[in-house]
Amino acid sequence: MSLDILNLTDRTPTEEARRQVEICNACRYCEGYCAVFPAITKQRAFADGDITQLANLCHNCRGCYYACQYTAPHEFDLNLPGILAEVRQDSWDRYAWPKPFAGAFQRKGTPIAVALIIGLALLFLALTALRPASGEGFYAYLSHGGMVAIFAPAFLLPLATIGIGLRRYWAEVGGQRITFAHLRDAVAATANMRNLGGGQGQGCNFEEGDRYSNRRRVAHQLVMYGFLLCFASTSSGTVLHYGFGLEAPYGLFSLPKLLGVPGGLLLTIGAGWLIRLKLQSDRDLGAASAWGGEVAFVLLLGLTGLTGLALYATTGTALVGPLLAIHLGTVLTFFLTTPYSKMVHGFYRLAALIRDAQVRL
Amino acid sequence: MTDSTKTWDVVIVGGGNAALCAAIEAAEAGASVIILEGAPLDYRGGNSRHTRNFRCMHAGPLSVLTDRYEEDEYFDDLLRVTKGETDEDLARMTIRTSETCLPWMEKQGVRFQPSLSGTLSLSRTNAFFLGGGKALVNAYYNRAADLGVAVRYEAQVKHVDIQDGVFGGVDCEIAGQPTRINGKAVVLASGGFQADLDWLARAWGPAAKNFLIRGTPYNRGVVLKDMLDQGAESVGDPTQCHAVAIDGRAPKYDGGIVTRLDCVPFSVVVNRHGQRFYDEGEDVWPKRYAIWGRLVAAQPDQVAYSIIDSKSMDAFMPSVFPPIQADTIEGLGQQLGISGTVLKETVDKFNDACRPGTFRGNELDGLATDGIEPPKTNWARPITEPPFYGYELRPGVTFTYLGLKVDDTARVTGEGGRMSNVWAAGEIMAGSILGQGYLAGFGMTIGTVFGRIAGREAAAYVA
Which of A82, B177, B184, B357 lies at 20 to 30 Å from A271 by C-alpha? Predict the structure, then answer.
């Protein structure tokens, strides 16, 4: 730790995180909470890439903050979850490609709202301009070809740019060749969000200060599994369409609906719950500078689920047209902002878990 | 002075581990309980917030504890460090009771974790708190809140009102406002006096002003002194404190665990005149760190310097401040503010006295010097590989020994015999059992055992 501990303002987030991590490495009381602390104890000196890795490995469970004997007003002034969140935000900006978009939708809610308005407008425009002569269900409003023309690039291009970012991340943290064992370990940690479990399944410290709670962990998993179900629903529709010539609309007991309806419900409920918990938590223990962007992102994610459900609920009514535009516009906005919004946390978090598995296994 | 009209069943003076255990036990028994914590909320918990484990007897694997650790072995360990300065009956009762404490603690919400990496090998004897002592304190405050215990922070008790051996209330200042708190029973759990440097200086001499206090600045012994002034029976050497050698750049108070330095056995240690003064390699560090506080306290200006070279840098746990670094021994001496020439002479003499042999950092390797005074009897490797590193050492006070004498029901005795409704727990009475030295995690054991007893006894008294 540097001795000029009172001179906090001159340090970059990475330098400040290094100062704090070195104090943690001399203490080690928090070893049992999550993957971050055992990773810290493996080293004595921390390069910038090491700090980036720790920042992305941190799930912001905050157990360490509430247990810490060195938080303000103590002169050591530790707030590890807070500073790692800031470093994490910075790292996503740094890896983002192309550069001008870096952080465009990370910090503030307004850009996401603007993007959503543009997305909705584009879809209303598309529905007006590309309205097919005939078609069933929502293909009566926008042809299958039209949807593919819009969403194939809107899905694949963001994925490709995230791939570029992940490559940069991997180089900076010194990642090696990934084996099945690394992947299995990281996916298992994601599947039950182990690192929001407080080390013993008691949960994290979020909406109730120093009391442990699993609410945030559960809400996050509702969103995550809801999202994955929705994604699987769309994928299954694609397979049915191209593989079996079965075209939408699908009935309730079809794969797309059996995956999509529960997925939409989980996504909507989970997102609402997450925002509620977020409103009860202490902003300074996360990336305070990105609070608005995070809330807007969760809202957008919840909105994709909610609008999808609404679209299904109004099947056969005159509302299908406008709701289709709203739902597809929301989804489009979500996809296009993904590389530059909080959504990237999932990709980098998984990468950090894989890298951590490489160090441990 | 404002007079609070309510009369509490049990008034708890202090807000650390012992106080909380007493409060929870009393509240569970149905008593109305108020905790008067001298510190503000951010610093609540006294020295408990800096702790990391408690020493626990067990007949077989228990929670995170491995193997077994039975009464006689535990007591032998205590005898060794106290050199007999203990009360065998009280000590054995404490040891036996510790086994039932661990499940009780878990029931109150305290969580344990396996012993930490790079710590002394304590997995058999000491149960580590997940997140350390502050997490334990948080768990207890939450439990106490759920039981309806009232807590006042910044509540500094100035006087314990005892008439003819019977407690009636305390006079305190709560956030600066003079307040009287009335109660039917009191548990005194307000710690020792190690943060009162004037008191330490009276006991130790002016050198004590240069000591660093490792823990809370709020343990100023006000209640202890008030009780002694009222004729309460005391125990423990009033002139002694437990001190270890820590990083000289640590904060004056509350530096806690991270300021410890484990480099001494791999170094030569000199005073400000550049001279060695004790065998740095006498024994493994966990068995020697406690005497180095005293050794450094006896040196001019209560300061010493631990000198190592680059080959030893990874042999010990990292500490909070980076060492002073130089490419030559002379340069290192100058940077440390001592004579580079003399330091060079001392290191050269030491290097010449080193003999060939195999260095083994984690055991007594017998790699000793030959022909110098004082010798270094283990880990004596010449200091030759730049860059060279230096750490400043100062005595860091952990706790004081003087306390209130209690019996096995945690009851305090005054001039007129056993007081009817005054109990004590934690550091304020630990000298009853720990008269000298220290055994890792034993302070928390004493606090938990006596806190619980005091809370139960006090609640039974008012019931």
Answer: A82
Q: How confident is the model at residue A102 (pLDDT cuts 50, 70, 90)?
A: confident
Residue A5 has pLDDT above 50, yes or no: no
Domain limits at B27?
Answer: 2-192+217-235+403-462
Residue B270, H or E segment: strand B268-271
Widest pairwise Cα distance in chain B: 77
Q: Is A226 exposed, middle or buried (0-12, 13-18, 19+ CB in 10 A)?
A: buried
Q: Do residues B455 and B379 share a domain? A: no
Query: Collapsing DSSP states into helix, strand and coil, what is residue A84?
Result: helix
How many domains does one find in chain B?
2
Phi and psi at B6, nearest 5°, equal -70, 140
Specify whether B65 is located in the same domain as B187. yes
B365 in the same domain as B347: yes
Q: Which amino acid, one-letter code, is at B332?
A: L
Structural domain contains residue B293: yes
Of B192, B87, B142, B160, nearest to B426 by C-alpha is B192
| Tally of helices (H runs) and strands (E runs) in chain A | 13, 0
Domain end among B338, B370, B396: B396
- Residue B273 sits in the same domain as residue B227: no
* Inter-chain touch A29–B52, beta carbons under 8 Å: yes
Contacts of A205 in chain B (CB under 8 A): none
Q: Which amino acid is at B318?
A: P
What whole-number distance in Å separates Cα of residue A67 and Cα of residue B415? Answer: 42
Contact call for B134 and A69, based on CB within 8 A? yes
Q: Which of B43, B106, B111, B391 to mutate to test the interface with A (most CBs of A within 10 A)?
A: B111
Distance from CA of A77 to the nearest CA of B (A): 12
Do B131 and A66 lie within an 8 Å CB cutoff? yes
Residue of chain A minimizing CA distance to B130: A32
Q: Which of B369, B396, B423 is the last residue of a domain?
A: B396
Determine, yes or no, domain membership for B202: no
Q: Which of B219, B164, B220 is nearest to B17 (CA)?
A: B219
Cβ–Cβ of B131/A33 closer than 8 Å?
Answer: yes
- Give residue A127's pLDDT: 86
Complex confidence, ipTM: 0.95
Q: What percent of chain A shows pLDDT beyond 70?
A: 98
Q: Are residues B69 and B188 in the same domain?
A: yes
The answer to whether B217 contacts chain A (CB < 8 Å) is: no
The partner residue sitting opposite A44, judged by closest CB among B43, B257, B318, is B318
- What are the backbone dihedrals phi and psi of residue A254, each rounded to the nearest 5 degrees, phi first? -100, 160
pLDDT at B171: 98
CA distance A32 to A352: 19
Q: Is residue B210 part of a domain?
A: no
Contact A26 B318 (CB under 8 A): yes
**Closest residue in chain A to residue B254, using alpha carbons only:** A74
- How distant is the Cα of A25 from the closest Cα of chain B, in angstroms? 7
Task: Give the closest-approach CA distance of B78 to chain A in angstroms.
Answer: 25
Handedness of CA B449, B454, B456, B457 (dihedral sign): positive
Q: Would you call B377 an interface residue with chain A, using a CB distance cutoff of 8 Å?
A: no
A307: how many CB neighbours lie within 10 A of its CB? 22
Based on the domain organization, do B130 and B257 belong to the same domain?
no
Task: Say if residue B161 is in the same domain as residue B254.
Answer: no
Q: Tell me, yes or no, whether B262 and B228 share the same domain.
A: no
Coil, strand or helix: which one is B150? Answer: strand
Check: CB of residue B56 under 8 Å from CB of residue B125. yes
B204 pLDDT exceeds 90?
no
Is B101 part of a structural domain of the chain? yes
